[in-house]
Amino acid sequence: xxxxxxxxxxxxxxxxxxxxxxxxxxxxxxCPIGGLAINCHVEPVHTMDADFALAAAHLDTxxxxxxxxxxxxxxxxxxxxxxxxxxxxxxxFTTDERDAEFPAxxxxxxxxxxxxxxxxxxxxxxxxxRAWSDPQRRLSKRKQDELDLIRVAEKCPAFLPQLPEAIRRxxx
Length: 172
Known about the structure:
The protein is an alpha+beta fold.
């Protein structure tokens, strides 16, 4: 079984991810961020969500195209969230201004049978440090951010000096 088939089977997502990527490719100013993107750079782990940086100018277009594909779309202050009935794959488009330049620096990668532009590892590390440092985030989310940073440092030790001391201590 391919990674793409296993992912679709576990998440019940069918062709959700390829359809979301096709919608994003049509507007161009996007890139996966978060765990899915980290998985493109280091040994992958299971995730049930797909986070994307998206230019705010494209939110209306993406919202309408996803709805036309049968996704339920909800708007939040800094994101647009989508979920197709019957699927457990949660799609989130962040409009956080701190991520606005990520698509311009995105790199072509392959994951789950798809070729797509993914946030650079340098951008992902900065975003993960920011998320890990946010006291408003749930502890379980911050621990996932910590794990992602550890995975990156193990594969790419050049990022070790950028990591917070509390994480670096665990790696030495």
